[in-house]
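User: Please fill in residues for this 481-position structure.
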């Protein structure tokens, strides 16, 4: 006669008073750790809040125009390769004609089609096609007697970007529903923190390490709790995220100086050098190293925390060591996939630079450690170190918390009885279950101790009380703590 056991996971009653007390104790412990960190972060945010005064910074706006010059919008009707309108005067003077791409464009404000001269780099890359909506520089008011006064500036991308954003929102809400919607709102809040706190603070010369760390903590607290709700599971993931952020910040501060990351090789940062003010390019790079790993770090910590909870719900009797070992198997797979995900994401963003340096006749190691690639490589390594170390720490915290906050369900033991049927015995240990099953077997046990049966099952004097089934929302709140 064999026997097996299983653990019920769905139709269980509410947690006991002891479990609720243990859960409250664990939540108070988590709050005792997280509340001081949050308060100190808010104090630091108030102390470092930028004044908004950027008068000491002088920047040339590439979209600023002289009096009489405007940026206009129009739709391309046709495209031709012909003599550049801007070279017409030179041709009349006897110079050789130069050919270029000319887009005959219907202005959005109305009027006759115009000859818009397309710049060579655009003509060689994608080009301009009929139906494209473009933005062009209108010099006709200050150069009324000269042709070629309309110069291509950029494409108008409003419609495709808005369509992609709407499609993204629809897909996220359709799959993740209310939680996905809250995550998108949290993302908007994160960008507000960057735009109102981190970026102005860097312009004013605030400490970049503190700006990046404090801003990242505020973003993670808001995003995690807003998207996943207030629970011990979320608090555990937040603790692991804060640990990973601390490691990333320390590594960023060291690597920026040790690897001589100056940022002057990039065109955008080179412009910042000539803007004046108190900005530090190496500090900006350091802050960027911290922020760049936020999304992936949040991903792995919430996944590890959820994995521990799900494993515990499937096996409430599992030991802490067993839970940690099982969850770390998931974590190692996550590490393996995430590390090369980060690497290829940065490689894709730096693809033009990779192509350029690959054409240089330089040794591979010199190429990888050159100024063009050093920043991307350091960003990948620093983010990966913080990510990898955050996984075991998050898993350990989750195991410790889940043992105190998880629902301890009554074990359900299923044993074989006469007639090939099964007997579910709840609330007793396995030895009692086996003894009862043995007494009900025909021909088993002592003749004087045979239990009365009906249809192969023991007859109880009083039927067991059926626990009241909680609602789905109540069960979810009870499980998440």
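Assistant: Residues filled in for all 481 positions:
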């Amino acid at each position: 006669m064999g026997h097996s056991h299983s653990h019920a996971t769905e139709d269980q009653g509410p947690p006991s008073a002891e479990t609720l007390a243990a859960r409250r104790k664990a939540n108070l412990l988590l709050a005792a750790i997280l509340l001081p960190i949050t308060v100190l972060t808010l104090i630091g945010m108030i102390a470092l809040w930028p004044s908004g005064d950027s008068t000491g910074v002088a920047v040339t706006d590439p979209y600023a125009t002289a009096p009489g010059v405007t940026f206009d919008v129009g739709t391309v009707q046709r495209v031709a390769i012909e003599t550049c309108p801007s070279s017409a005067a030179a041709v009349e003077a006897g110079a050789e004609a130069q050919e270029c791409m000319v887009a005959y464009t219907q202005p959005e404000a109305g009027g006759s089609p115009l000859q818009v001269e397309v710049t060579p780099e655009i003509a060689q890359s994608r080009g301009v096609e009929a139906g494209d909506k473009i933005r062009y520089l209108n010099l006709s008011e200050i150069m009324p007697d000269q042709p070629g006064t309309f110069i291509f500036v950029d494409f108008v991308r409003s419609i495709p970007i808005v369509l992609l954003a709407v499609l993204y929102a629809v897909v996220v809400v359709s799959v993740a529903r209310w939680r996905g919607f809250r995550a998108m709102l949290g993302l908007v809040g994160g960008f507000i923190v960057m735009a109102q706190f981190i970026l102005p603070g860097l312009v004013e010369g605030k400490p970049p390490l503190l700006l990046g760390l404090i801003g990242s903590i505020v973003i993670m607290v808001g995003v995690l709790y807003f998207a996943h709700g207030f629970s011990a599971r979320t608090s555990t993931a937040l603790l692991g995220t804060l640990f990973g952020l601390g490691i990333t910040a320390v590594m960023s501060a060291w690597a920026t100086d040790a690897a001589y990351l100056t940022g002057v090789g990039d065109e955008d940062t080179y412009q910042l050098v000539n803007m004046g003010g108190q900005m530090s390019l190496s500090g900006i790079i350091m802050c960027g190293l911290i922020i760049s790993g936020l999304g992936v770090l949040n991903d792995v910590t919430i996944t590890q925390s959820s994995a521990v909870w799900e494993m515990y719900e499937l096996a409430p009797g599992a030991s802490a060591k067993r839970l940690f070992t099982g969850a770390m198997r998931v974590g190692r797979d996550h590490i393996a996939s995430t590390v090369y995900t980060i690497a290829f994401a940065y490689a894709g963003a730096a693809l033009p630079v990779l192509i350029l340096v690959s054409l240089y006749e330089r040794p591979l190691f010199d190429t990888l450690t050159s100024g063009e690639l050093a920043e991307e490589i350091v960003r990948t390594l620093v983010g990966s170190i913080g990510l990898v170390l955050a996984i075991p720490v998050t898993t350990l915290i989750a195991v410790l918390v889940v043992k105190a906050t998880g629902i301890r369900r009554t074990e359900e033991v299923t044993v074989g009885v006469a007639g090939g049927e099964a007997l579910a015995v709840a609330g007793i240990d396995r030895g009692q279950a086996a003894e009862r099953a043995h007494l009900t077997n025909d021909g088993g046990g002592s003749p004087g101790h045979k239990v009365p049966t009906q249809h192969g099952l023991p007859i109880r004097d009083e039927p067991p009380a059926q626990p009241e089934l909680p609602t789905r929302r109540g069960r979810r709140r009870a499980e998440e703590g």
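For context: The first strand starts at residue 3 and ends at 6.
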